[in-house]
Specification:
By secondary structure, the protein is an alpha/beta fold. The protein has helices spanning 11-22, 60-69, 82-87, 89-110, 150-171, 195-204, 224-235, 255-265, 277-281, 296-302, 310-322, and strands at 2-6, 26-31, 50-54, 72-75, 113-119, 175-180, 183-184, 209-212, 218-220, 222-223, 244-247, 252-254, 272-275. Helix 5 (150-171) links the parallel strand 5 (113-119) and strand 6. Helix 1 (11-22) packs across helix 7 (224-235) and helix 6 packs parallel to helix 8. The chain binds uridine-5'-diphosphate. Uridine-5'-diphosphate binds at residues 82, 182, 193-195, 198, 210-212, 217, 219, 255, 287.
Length: 323
Amino acid sequence: MKYLITGGAGFIGSHLAEMLLARGEEVYIIDDLSTGTLKNVEHLQDREAFHLVVDSILHETVMNELLSKCDAVYHLAAAVGVKLIMNRPVETLETNVKGTETVLRLANRYKRKIMIASTSEVYGKLMNGENARPLSEDADSLMGTSTKRRWAYACSKALDEFMALAYYEEKKLPIIIVRLFNTVGPRQTGQYGMVIPNFVQKALIGKPITVYGDGSQSRSFTHVTDVVDALDKLMGNPKAVGQIFNVGNSEEVTIRDLALLVREMTNSSSEIEYIPYERAYGPGFEDMQRRCPNINKIRTLIGYHPRIDLRGIIKSVIDYYKT
Ligand code: UDP
């Protein structure tokens, strides 16, 4: 098979490319290197079956050629990272809305199977209430007001989902939507906000580990190799077409406990510093108190079980930053 990965020089895209190449597939990636880097894929460059195009997914001529020659598409190119989204709202909306619109339209021209990477952000702050339950794919979203910038990202990705489902229902385009929860592993940068690489890097150099808010908020983390394995199995399963799947891990941890665990695992003497959200992200920031997936749907279809636990995840990031 020939696969196209948009955003293939990014953190998740580069792991996916590596896995597909190892299995003997041919892989084309397109990346504008906005948040992805050549370093992420330099170890793949000498493979005959690997093709790298440095360009924007908004470039129609280039995308048309790629779509015409590939059999299936993983659409991962997007503006990601809470910090980036807070700092560059116009770019976020343009990339996520226009980019997905372009990729879907061209995939439809050649009727290529396409997986759209969405995000757990689309649930918004649904788990903030007292009776919160792990998030199922058919749960309602609860997003904040438009003046709070964070929600622009959630809204743009929800629109991507609507567009993909519209193509499926109206034009019979085979689409699959995956809602990725906090994904972590080697090559993830802390530059755009992601908490684990941030904590690990600070702990390794003895700088204060910065916890935003009071640290009582919780998240559930999944290792990138579990995620790319799930994406591959969903792509290969005809029953996944036209469906939305959570891809995550149901083990929850508070950010305060995460900071303590990273400090312990790095043998660091870093202080843990609590910083108000306003100072971290600027005014008008709203966080979600909890975010945890219900993974019954993906488990039932492909037997999905994340294999790497939180300690294993943190260890892989420590090893990466140490080397
Ligand atoms: N966070 C933190 N310190 C950091 C980066 C993030 O305390 O240096 C917090 C952030 O406020 C959030 C959680 O860690 O509550 C996860 O943040 P991340 O940006 O990794 O992902 P999110 O789940 O917010 O998309």
